[in-house]
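REVIEWER CHECKLIST
Item 1: Sequence provided? yes
Item 2: Single chain? yes
Item 3: Sequence as submitted:
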Amino acid sequence: MPHEIGDLHNLEELGLSWNNLVGPIPTTIFNISTIKIIGIAGNKLSGILPSTTKVPNLERLTMGSNDFSGTFPSFISNASKLSMLDISSNSFTGFIPSTIGNLRNLEWLNLKENYLTSPTPNLSILSSLANCKNLKHLELAGNPLNSLLPSSIGNLSISLENVYMNDCNVSGNIPKEIENLNHLIEIQLQSNKLTGPIPATLGGLQKLQGLNLRDNKLEGSIPDHLCRLIELVELQLDGNNIYGSIPACLGNLTTLRKLSLASNRLTSVIPSTLWQLKDILYFNLSSNFLNGSVPFEIQSLKVVVAIDLSRNHLSGNIPTDIGSLKNLQNLSLRYNRFEGLIPESIGDMTSLNFLDLSNNNLFGVIPKSLEKLSYLLYLNLSFNQLSGEIPTGGTFRNFSVESFKGNLALCRSPQLQLPQCQTSTHRKSRTKKVLLLIVLLPLSIVVTMVVLVLTFVLTKGRKKSRKPPTNAEVYPQHTWRRISYQELVRATNGFSENNLLGRGSYGSVYRGRLDDGMELAIKVFHLHFEGALTSFEAECEVLSSIRHRNLVKIISSCTNDDFKSLILEYMPNGSLEKCLYSDNCILDISHRLNIMIDVASALEYPHFSYSVPIVHCDLKPNNVLLDANMVAHLSDFGISKLLSEEDSMMQTQTLATIGYMAPEYGREGKVSQKGDVYSFGIMLMETFTRKKPTDEIFSEEMSLRSWVGESLCSAVMKVVDGNLVSRDDENFSRKEECLSSILSLAMECTRESPGERINIREVRGTKMCLLDNNPLIEGFSFNRIWGQVD
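Item 4: Structure as written out by the authors:
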């Protein structure tokens, strides 16, 4: 800026904003007594403003978005005619002077994004500004005020329309006196440390259009009084500790364009009234504990641009009419419990550029209609139960394996590191193989038994035979009960959804009752899934040959060219996962320890007592079933591997479940008994912490194992399931010792290197919870004193 500007003694208005001016400002400008307006915002001007200058007629000073520094310009307090002051986005430091209250004509004050502080802990600037009766706009955002939000905020001008105090390190409660500012149009108090409830008095601000309280520490429920804000356009309460249900009356705020309640502790179902907000643009309820389904009424949100319902407990099907949302650009339903097929109609959402349906229970094929989404930049369908061929047209050419991982039955070209899709000819060939297996298996067992008897007679005296475990025996097919397909249809009421117990990667399991009253679990394999026949063959080979009190019992099979099923013993208490996370199933320490002892026993037999070692490969709580007496039975040997004598660690391309999978399995596909031990250790941690290894609190920096490991060095009770023990318990110290020993064993099972892990037999031999004279837990160990298996 030319220094000579200061010589223009009759200058009244200087407008140089938003240019590329640099360097210091000529201080002589502030000696022009006639000047009324100085506009120099949006440049790169720098330096320290003078303190001893007089601008008695100055009405507007806008110098934001420059590089000025130093303390608050003291001359400003003497500019008694000043109505607009904007020194935002500079580097001013020090206290905001109370003398700013002398500016009785002030209407607009913008001090945001500096380094200004309050001289007192109760934000005295607000008390000073009470003298500015014409103040309409107050902006202090982005300054380290480090103060409490005082009740004096209610003494500000009743003309005040906008308050921006976000990111100011302001704490305390939101004062109820804020209701006095009944002309407010927008309040932004986000990114502070505000606590306490949302005051119901906010409902009295009838002209309010924007309320942003996100990223604070607010508690309590959402007050129904907010529903009185009939002109509200934006409501952002995300990132607090708000609990309870969402008020149904929010659906009456027809002016809402943005609703964000994410990252709170909201429960119950989404009120049906919210689907009536036909003009809403942004809809975010993610990271809560909402349940229930998403109804077809979602199609009413015709103009919505973004919907985020991720990280909740929502279930049911994705509505088939969701494709009518033609303007939707961002849809995230990840980390829920949605099931069923991906609707074909999503292909009609022509504006979509972000789609995340990961970590649900979706099954079936990926609709080819999604190839029509020409603007799609991000796609995540990982960790579902999808099957079949991945589409190759449209934007699918741009997506990597990361978009599809965790779906065991998906196939595509090798560049995605997924199995190639097989032809129907190959599938028929494998069908013939499994039929030959079923026909020849009984005969081969008989021949094998004859050979073994002859061998025993010839070698008697030279070699002692090994006595098999008392609870494990050959269980050949000729002992199976014959059950026809028609009987299965009747038993399951035509494989009705009402009898569906669950779905897996390769099939569905139904509950059935035969004509004689016998209850069964019928596992029906979906033969159109690539890998289903392999899974069926593996389970036939394992479960038809061995029997153990802690392995699920196979009763029969029913097969033809188009139908393959295994008929299993019915487990009335469901899976360990279902029981562990259910509010209706209470598992104390002894229950959980008993179950894990059963699992260890179930693993030891195929690892050590079978002629060819068997590795389960997919050990997790969902594959541990509980009978009527809460005895655990290990199930689902669909991806199990048989290890030859020469190969104690083999390689495979079959994927196990993320979180439970041993590191060497995930990195190199190497399978061994020690991989099962690793999964057992993870499941042991989950059973006693009630935290899944895939829980959202875990990331690359923190895993379930490291979380548990750190607690063993400090306070183990911080990670243990709070339902197991309380500090008021008279046996607290002994239970704490017991839980610590259990989690220490889990750490031994999950060492990084397979060679450093103990084997499952050593696990069962580990003494656990030896609590003398403890009436609640007596003498438990993984080699159970009572009812020993071996």
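Item 5: Key structural point noted by reviewer: The chain has a mean pLDDT of 84.
Item 6: Recommendation: ____
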